[in-house]
Amino acid sequence: MNQLASNGVLERPVKKPVPAAASRQTTARTIIVSNRVPSPTEKAATAGGLAVALADAATPGSMWFGWSGKRAHDTSTKANITVADGVTYATIDIAERDYQQFYNGFSNAALWPLFHYRTGLLRFNRPDYEAYRTVNRAFAEALLPLLEPDDLIWIHDYQLMTMATELRALGVTNRIGFFLHIPFVPPALLAVLPTAAELVAGLSACDVVGFQTVGDRTAFLDNAEILLKTRPDKHGRYTYNGRSVHAVVTPIGIDAKKFEQQALRAEHSADAQRLEESLGDRALVLGVDRLDYSKGLPQRFDAFGRLLYAFPQHRRCVNFLQIAARSRQEVGSYQTLRRELDRRAGDINGEFSDFDWVPLRYMTHPVKRNAIAGFYRRANIGLVTPLRDGMNLVAKEYVAAQDQVNPGVLVLSRFAGAADELTEALIVNPFDADEVAAAMHEALVMPLEERVARHDALLAKVRTSTAQHFCETFIAYLRDPTRN
Ligand code: ADQ
């Protein structure tokens, strides 16, 4: 048996993982691996889609492994363990220098812009990439002694694309899955990255590789074919290094029922009441995002300006509230974005404000999820217009939060993964401010009957494609090598 030492570190006999087939254990444990592991008390407060979705996946008996959020002198390869509500949280600290290069550097200044089709923002350098490899190796080394033979390892997102390579090099034969929360890019774009082949090989060291949309999976398979000379079959299976890899599409969702109830309760919360009083009978257009250039916020502000310009009947009758949680502020392009938004918000308010009406409210400090749920319910329009987005859970939360008898309208970018599923939204091109403005106008004057019909169809989808469904489907693929 493993023992918890007084310092909270799990002590266990050193052993080599053995092939899954050799074990007699019947229920495999799921090990979720993500860059950042929220502490159990932090779970609900975290802004960010991955943490929100995986909070539902961390069920009793499972383990959540990753970075503690602490920066230390050295990157550790021995995990600290805490157990809460039956979930084991195993975390390591990362050295300040590694953090800068692995996280702010390669992950967020190279991979994030590239995977969101923004090659102009990509900053690549070798030392950052080496640090990325080093941290991925440290993750693998720290996880190794915690592994049981039958454990299913489920790695998440772009910060950990080479971790499976390291686990295999350490002799791990467990089944490994990887899910990419952000888009994957076609070969012509990935070719910009000098280390592209190593990343695709990293994912190909897994048994199952999951994507948000069919388009993302196709892009990945095209890259694997070119860079690794693989030959995928019609199910997305191919052989690499003598092992079978299965590329699957498993779109992420939310806990719809829970969110519906939360929004219903939040409608009468103090925050929702304050918002209501400040609005009077004006319509509310709402945006909720991390402050990130992939979310299309400058373009969204412009579109709202175009609405007021081209449809003057809405002046004084509508307010746009943009909640934009500050994010990755140590990365230069995020600082530039913030200044840009300050300027555009000032321009719009300077042009259209009256002495008793300010059209655009823009805030960057954190807002509690409960308050946000109430705000969604009050909003006549959920304005979700990323330039590129893996899925976008805000779109799904907005749908779940609506009053079914008198719902608002979702205006959704065609470049969000969610647009593949949520086809009854008003689908727009976020680069076209006039098109987005026209969609907002259409939403503001849409008859109740049409709003209800569109919302009924959207809600049915959000209730079906939940976070739980996402986890169960992915794990089913991971568990069963024959599943198509
Ligand atoms: P994100 O880019 O973080 O996630 P998203 O899917 O919209 O984007 O999730 C954001 C989550 O954080 C939502 O649950 C939202 O309510 C919450 N949130 C956003 N802004 C907030 C704020 N100001 N205050 C409090 N909470 C806030 C990444 C990918 C997405 C993908 C998810 C999940 O970029 O494409 O959908 O992972 O896979």
Report low-confidence residues grouped into runs of 5 or more: 1-25
Strand count = 17
Strands in their spatial order, largest beta sheet:
5-6-4-3-7-8-9-11-10
> Helix content range of the residues, please?
40-55%
The set of bound ligands, ions and cofactors reads: adenosine-5'-diphosphate-glucose
Beta content comes to 15-25%
Rg calc: 23 Å
Q: What structural class is derived from the secondary structure elements?
A: alpha/beta
Specify the biggest β-sheet. Answer: 9 strands, mixed
Molecular shape: globular
Mean pLDDT: 92
Span of the ends, CA to CA: 37 Å
Total helices: the number is 16
Secondary-structure map:
Blueprint: E1 3-4, E2 10-11, E3 30-36, H1 49-55, E4 63-72, E5 80-84, E6 87-95, H2 96-115, H3 126-143, E7 152-156, H4 163-169, E8 176-179, H5 187-190, H6 196-203, E9 208-211, H7 214-228, E10 237-240, E11 243-249, H8 256-266, H9 270-279, E12 283-290, H10 297-310, E13 318-325, H11 332-352, E14 360-363, H12 369-378, E15 381-384, H13 393-401, E16 409-413, E17 426-428, H14 433-445, H15 448-464, H16 467-479
Brief rundown of the structure:
The chain has 484 residues and is α/β, with parallel strands linked by helices. Helix content is 41%, strand content 19%.
List keywords for this structure.
six-stranded parallel β-sheet, 16 helices, binds adenosine-5'-diphosphate-glucose, alpha/beta, 19% strand, 484 residues
